[in-house]
Specification:
Blueprint: E1 4-7, E2 10-13, H1 24-28, E3 31-39, E4 42-43, H2 46-59, H3 68-81, E5 87-94, E6 113-120, H4 128-132, E7 134-140, H5 155-166, E8 171-176, E9 179-183, E10 187-192, E11 195-198, H6 209-220, E12 225-227, H7 232-236, E13 240-245, E14 249-256, E15 259-260, H8 268-275
Parallel strand pairs: 7-8, 7-14, 11-12
Antiparallel strand pairs: 1-2, 1-6, 3-4, 3-5, 5-6, 8-9, 10-11, 10-13, 13-14, 14-15
The chain binds 4'-deoxy-4'-aminopyridoxal-5'-phosphate.
């Protein structure tokens, strides 16, 4: 089914939607984005995604394309226009399209670019991967130093995932100084000694909205949590491992670099957190 997408103030059939070749998002990855999942036609954790979008815009001094209420209305309109039941809304803000390609942005006379589109993901709530778990392969983390800003600079994470696929795994875990930073598009977790462990927040990882929700659910369920980094070896020897993101919720990791984690099948903590 052809989608209706939003581009710079207009709703258009996807084939008619165009952005300028001078758009700084296209030329320089000078853009930030959010992905909000949709379940039963409703936005999940939208307040968190909006707050992080605001933070990303502020961190890069990017002009805002719309106020909070307008952005919420656009997200809801994207869902409604596409009769989306299960899937996600992608929202991207760029520093706009100046008349010339130049590293310097001319100034606020160039309006920011705004794109929203939807993507259907049947089985989002309980897909095959959630039941079977995934295998990850580790790669060095070669990204830039401000991974807390959600930019569209996704060359390395997408390449890392392709490298992992080439090795027969489903996704990549990135490693820096011997410690796991995060997955290609998710936060990484283990269960070690009965405690849930995930790296603390900083400029070296993205502050996942699902991560925050899972921490809240774990606290409410009185599960012990430690925010600290862990090594690949600790993860391979852990009872369980899993990843979290808006479009996967809690997804068990059952193999790391070919070695089974725990029993080699999804474990009870990941299952419980996913249910919560
Ligand atoms: N880390 C990275 C690098 C990501 O791309 C994502 C997905 N946006 C996440 C973590 C998870 O964030 P969220 O739970 O907000 O989707």
């Amino acid at each position: 089914m052809s989608r209706i997408v939003h581009v710079n103030g207009e709703w258009l059939p996807e084939a008619e939607a165009k952005v300028s070749v001078f758009d700084r998002g296209f030329l320089m990855a000078d853009a930030v984005y959010e992905v909000t999942s949709v379940l039963d036609g409703r936005l999940v954790d939208f307040a968190g995604h909006l707050a992080r979008l605001r933070r990303s815009l502020a961190a890069l001094d990017l002009p805002s394309p719309a106020g909070d209420d307008a952005l919420l209305a656009l997200h809801r309109e994207a869902v409604a226009r596409n009769a989306l039941d299960e899937g996600m809304v992608y929202c991207q803000v760029t520093r706009g399209a100046p008349a010339e390609r130049d590293f310097l942005w001319p100034g606020p006379e160039v309006p920011p670019g705004l794109v929203l589109f939807t993507q259907e993901k049947p089985g989002l709530a309980l897909g095959a991967q959630a039941r079977a778990g995934i295998a990850v392969a580790t790669v060095p983390d070669l990204r830039w130093g401000r991974r807390d800003i959600k930019t569209v600079q996704l060359l390395y994470p997408s390449w890392a995932k392709m490298i992992a696929k080439g090795q027969g795994a489903d996704d990549a875990w990135m490693v820096e100084e011997g410690l796991v930073t995060e997955g290609s598009s998710n936060n990484a977790w283990i269960v070690a000694g009965g405690r849930i462990v995930t790296r603390g927040l900083g400029e070296d990882i993205l502050a996942g909205i699902t991560r925050a929700t899972v921490l809240r659910c774990a606290a409410e369920a009185q599960l012990a949590v430690e925010e600290r980094p862990f090594t690949v070896e600790e993860a391979q020897g852990a009872e369980e491992a899993f990843v979290t993101s808006a479009t996967t919720f809690v997804l068990p990791v059952v193999r790391i670099d070919g070695r089974p984690v725990g029993s080699g099948a999804p474990g009870p903590v990941a299952r419980r957190l996913r249910e919560l």
